[in-house]
Write a structure and sequence with these properties.
- There is one protein chain.
- This protein is an alpha/beta fold.
- It contains 26 helices and 15 strands.
- A seven-stranded mixed beta sheet has the order 4-3-9-5-8-7-6, with helices on both faces. Strands 10-12-11 form a three-stranded antiparallel beta sheet. It has a three-stranded antiparallel beta sheet with strand order 14-13-15.
- Helix 3 crosses helix 7.
């Protein structure tokens, strides 16, 4: 635990600067506009800010250190943000070593999206502290999982401001915010309950529009619903380089012997298969925790999580060398404790929550007793174990939450594999067909390593089957078009609808091929006498795509099953090099025929204007994959017949 005196001594000069530079002048401005006396506004003192600001966000509880607290600055490796815009050839990059003034000056609303464990929350907390240190404004940090149908963002801010000023007049809050200089950190949009998502999103949009002269940072895993925040500029977090991963390992060990031994092993070249894990800050921390516990390098993601769980359960610090093991009040051994955790993880997944009031979590634990009737443990005893001796949960005010969402997803994935029995296929199929499939991407990634066959038959087989059926209905009769170009065109419209906006008018078609062909056919009638190119068309129209939720699966499937995709990857700058078409031939709306170069250029236009992924399914490879899966299914059925015979 970091001593309170050190924390407050560090914070005081920076907080005094914010008070004198921003807070007091704003109160004086409110006095002039409202006529309220200064004493009624209860101007906050330095100690009030210390209570809210530094205490909560300058320290971090990590998976590596269990219950120990560390300053976030001591563990931070500078992360790099890259602008997320496929139409930009030279990607704008910003390495975050301090508060990014130039980036904020250019984009007042910044959306940071990336997959689990890339450091989104750590980054926003560091920026929050940087705002205080550099005197850039008044920071407000909102954990969006706290927002609901019954709790608006203004109510959440009110509670935080109350902790600063002790009794700030709620009627003046919005006026206070509208004076500007606030920097809002909206962390974890993906953690908002699905039942509350629509209401919370509407409330957020309304608040942001009314407080538009402030700065906003929002973080989330990739979600389709983020399209609602089109005025935010989207950025991704760059993967860690090996050098950065090694530096992070050293920070966890304070430059000690364990990190040196681990890094030396990683440099031998025997562990190239886990290079992907070294790109993710969370997985780097799990690697350190697993190695610290067992002195071996786990080669799969779920083994990381299991070794981390083992280390948490044993609470064994190898550096102390005493082998001390905390007594568990529940009296459960390591495997039985995991059985209960699997149920809790899956129950939390079904509720789409990682944070609970104490009574809610006690109910989930009590339900786990009914699911594991052969185990004898006290509900409150197990909760105490989860907070102390096996600290996979932590207290945050009056709420209790998982220390990291990915741990909950790991135990939920294990539950599906080990405990759902005959319902396993049904659960995975429901995930695959869910309109909220993007909520399950990380759990499916973990599940692939746990149960490759379950993933293959419930995810790979249906996506291949859907594509083959789609492809076979979309034949192009032309003999002059390149087959690869035709395959690209068909794949571009798989699980998508086309939206075309020209001159402010929206044009759509029931069939995406009809929509795009109809548009270019009409366009060509006015251009047939002139030379044209896709560059000129690009200036005239805007094309977008409405994607099905299943499109979110493609980055995962590319990683896990690359053989079903086209070998050729389209260059990022292809549309900048589209040739000028000297002899223009209009499209035949019925056959889709046109000159090959023009057909190819339209593909480029669709890709870049629609922000399409560059990995395209291969029809023939999908057929091969389906046949292979069916052969395995038959072999397994034959094996079961033999077992039945016994």
């Amino acid at each position: 635990m970091i001593p309170e005196a050190i924390l407050m001594q560090t914070a005081k000069p920076f907080i005094d600067n914010i008070l004198n530079k921003f807070i007091v002048p704003k109160f004086e401005k409110l006095i002039q506009s409202t006529g309220i006396e200064l004493k009624e506004l209860l101007i906050p003192k330095s100690e009030h800010f210390e209570e809210y600001l530094y205490r909560k966000y300058s320290i971090v509880n990590t998976l590596v250190f269990k219950n120990e607290q560390r300053f976030i600055k001591d563990l931070y490796i500078p992360l790099t943000l890259t602008i997320n815009d496929s139409r930009v050839e030279e990607k704008e990059k910003t390495t975050i070593t301090k508060f990014p003034e130039s980036l904020v000056a250019k984009y007042h609303k910044i959306l940071i999206t990336d997959t689990a464990g890339m450091g989104k929350s750590t980054l926003t907390k560091l920026l929050f502290i940087n705002v205080i240190d550099d005197g850039q404004g008044i920071p407000i940090f909102i954990e969006m999982r706290r927002l609901s149908n019954n709790r608006t963002i203004l109510q959440e801010i009110q509670e935080q401001v109350n902790s600063i000023s002790k009794d700030f007049d709620s009627r003046l809050l919005l006026k206070f915010i509208q004076t500007g200089s606030f920097i809002f950190f909206l962390d974890g949009y993906d953690e908002i309950s699905l039942n509350d998502r629509a209401t919370v999103t509407s409330n957020l949009q309304d608040f942001i529009s009314k407080a538009g002269n402030n700065t906003f940072f929002m973080t989330s895993r990739p979600e389709q619903a983020l399209a609602s925040f089109g005025d935010f500029q989207s950025f991704n977090i760059n993967p860690l380089s090996k050098r950065e991963a090694y530096e992070l390992l050293k920070k966890y060990d304070n430059q000690g012997t364990i990190s040196r031994r681990l890094i030396d092993e990683l440099k031998t070249g025997h562990y190239e298969m886990i290079n992907e894990f070294l790109q993710n800050p969370l997985l780097v921390s799990l690697l350190f925790a697993a190695y610290d516990y067992k002195q071996t390098i786990p080669l799969k993601k779920h083994i990381f999580y299991r070794q981390v769980y083992d280390a948490y359960f044993d609470s064994h610090d190898l550096s102390k060398g005493d082998g001390y093991i905390h007594i568990k009040k529940s009296n459960l051994d390591i495997d039985d404790f995991e059985r209960v955790l699997r149920y809790i993880g899956y129950n939390c997944l079904c509720q789409q929550k990682i944070e609970f009031e104490k009574d809610q979590l006690l109910k989930i634990i009590n339900d786990s007793r009914n699911f594991c009737p052969d185990l004898d443990f006290g509900t409150s005893d197990l909760l105490e174990d989860l907070l102390t001796s096996v600290p996979l949960f932590c207290e945050d005010g009056h709420l209790i939450r998982w220390v990291h969402k990915s741990l909950q997803e790991y135990f939920a994935a294990q539950f599906i594999f080990k405990d759902s029995k005959q319902r396993q296929d049904n659960i995975l199929t429901k995930m695959y067909n869910s309109n909220n499939l993007d909520k399950y991407i990380n759990i499916l990634d973990i599940y692939y390593d746990i149960d490759n066959w379950g993933f293959t038959k419930n995810i790979i087989k249906p996506i291949c089957t859907e594509y083959v059926n789609f492809y076979e209905k979309k034949r192009f009769p032309s003999q002059i078009l390149d087959q690869n170009d035709i395959d690209i065109r068909i794949c571009l419209f798989f699980l998508r609808d086309v939206v075309i906006v020209k001159d402010g008018k929206l044009s759509t078609g029931k069939d995406p091929f009809d929509a795009i062909n109809a548009f270019f056919y009409e366009y060509s009638k006015g251009q047939s006498k002139n030379r044209t190119s896709t560059i000129s068309i690009l200036e005239d129209i805007m094309i977008g795509k409405l994607e099905h939720a299943k499109c979110k699966l493609f980055p995962l499937i590319v990683k896990r099953c690359p053989q079903i995709f086209l070998d050729a990857i389209i260059p990022n700058n292809s549309h900048h090099k589209s040739p000028t078409i000297n002899e223009y031939q209009p499209i035949d709306i019925h056959t889709g025929e046109n000159r090959p170069n023009y057909f190819r250029d339209i593909n480029m236009l669709l890709i870049y204007e629609g922000n399409c992924f560059k990995q395209l399914l291969n029809y023939k490879s999908c057929i091969v994959e389906i046949k292979k899966i069916k052969n395995i299914e038959q072999s397994k059925k034959d094996s079961l017949d033999i077992i039945d015979g016994l």
